[in-house]
Amino acid sequence: MNKHQRITFRELVLATDLEAAFLWRYQFFQASEYRPFMNHTSRQIDLDQADYYSRHWGAFNDDHQMIGYARIVQMDSNDGIASAMIRIAKKYSLTIMFSSDSHYPILTYQSSTSRKVIKTFLSRQFSSQVIELSRFLIQPNTPFTVARFMVNAGLGIYRQILSDPIVLLSCRDRHQYFWQRYGFCRIPGDEGFWTGKIRSVNLCSGLDVADQRTERLLAKYGAIYQDQQTITSSL
Asked: What does pTM read for this prediction?
């Protein structure tokens, strides 16, 4: 990627964009050390029940190529993409049932202590504010500034959308430091877990950001998205 390209961060709602993202997810995990995290299928596409409960986000370069992707799992089903999801599942002969009556996917966390804490979050009045960041991908050889831009833009958007957000994520234990600037810390009592040779931990944040520069960026991107429904930056 050339220096100082304009990167656009936007929500994926079209079936073509969603299908491209799910195919890329499969290819990414299949070819990386994160392979144990995915459900292997002969269909060569990564698509599961949580996707129906999610809003999907992509970062695109000047050539309209998707160079970054993230999924935000939420409490409510995303009925706006229901027809696209059904169409994609049918195309790849997947027997995934997309229903708003299904079990909330966040409760499948791989740490018993984390599951208990998350159930406590969901039992409170602000349960609709609980979201999970997952499937965060960046194309190889993409500058780290793109990943940071995606995080700033995405968290800025959700601070704008939700009045009192609780954001959950799992990451490798060695990556915890990066998330601290956004107020993330280990879920109380979280014992972590192993997937293959990778040790991960579960983090949560109310997005109480101490760093003033980061705080300003989140506020800026949240306001831009509210006005334009997309965020573009020269990186």
From this structure: 0.90
